[in-house]
Amino acid sequence: DIVMTQSPDSLAVSLGERATINCKSSQSVLYGSNNKNSLAWYQQKPGQPPKLLIYWASTRESGVPDRFSGSGSGTDFTLTISSLQADDVAVYYCQQFYATPRTFGQGTKLEIK
Amino acid sequence: QVRLQESGPGLVKPSQTLSLICTVSGGSIRTDGYYWSWIRQPAGKGLEWIGRIQANGNTIYNPSLTSRVTISADTSKNQFSLTLTSVTAADTAVYYCATFHYDGTAFYPEDYWGQGTLVTVSS
């Protein structure tokens, strides 16, 4: 299985400041057929299912605010929230969809400082 | 827009079989290129991908669960189901059904999810 490791486990950021979450995969998730990284980011709020934010490492899902951005390639990826809003408090997960079984990072809990 | 809704018993006894159904609306599970997943999440913990099925019945399971899990589809009811045998307390979790697609070149991540259903394994 591809192991996904996120850092940090938790993060406290002031409103309006930048939040950065990292995700590392145990092997490359670069998909040869389209030369894109099979890496997604999800946001999960209490009592709700995960919500897809970003796929192909950097493509925002429709309706996701542009303060959310993804970057990285190969094995190292980053989710950045450019200006933290109160509504962004959640747990964030990365997922590789390069191989089965699909695997997720352990999650990063984002809070307001 | 596709909607998914999980249903099934909320309490299962140890060593028995967990059975859940996911009812799909707003789309057909027979749609080419669409795949139907089960994912679970123990309370306060991370997400574990259980497996997926296509409408033609083709399945892939997580090797960690493959000896105990079966995913099947009922196209006449636009539903797919999860069966997990010989459950223990470690199988207590919120179980989600979800869907993803293949565009002919590449697979996509799960983009539509059900609200989830809590299954507790306890005597």
List the helices and strands and how they pair.
The complex is a heterodimer of chains A (113) and B (123).
Chain A: E1 4-7, E2 10-13, E3 19-25, E4 30-31, E5 36-37, E6 39-44, E7 51-55, E8 59-60, E9 68-73, E10 76-81, E11 90-96, E12 103-104, E13 108-112
Chain B: E1 3-7, E2 11-12, E3 18-25, E4 34-41, E5 48-53, E6 59-61, E7 69-74, E8 79-84, E9 93-101, E10 112-113, E11 117-121
Parallel strand pairs in B: 2-11
Antiparallel strand pairs in B: 1-3, 3-8, 4-5, 4-9, 5-6, 7-8, 9-10, 9-11
Describe this entry's structure for a reader.
The complex is a heterodimer of chains A (113) and B (123). With 113 residues, chain A is mainly beta. Helices cover 0% and strands 51% of the residues of chain A. Chain A is globular, with a radius of gyration of 13 Å. In chain B, the strands form two sheets. In chain B, strands 2, 4, 5, 6, 9, 10 and 11 form a seven-stranded mixed β-sheet that branches. Chain B has a four-stranded antiparallel β-sheet with strand order 1-3-8-7, with no helix packed on it. Chains A and B meet through strand 7 and strand 12 of A and strand 5 and strand 9 of B.
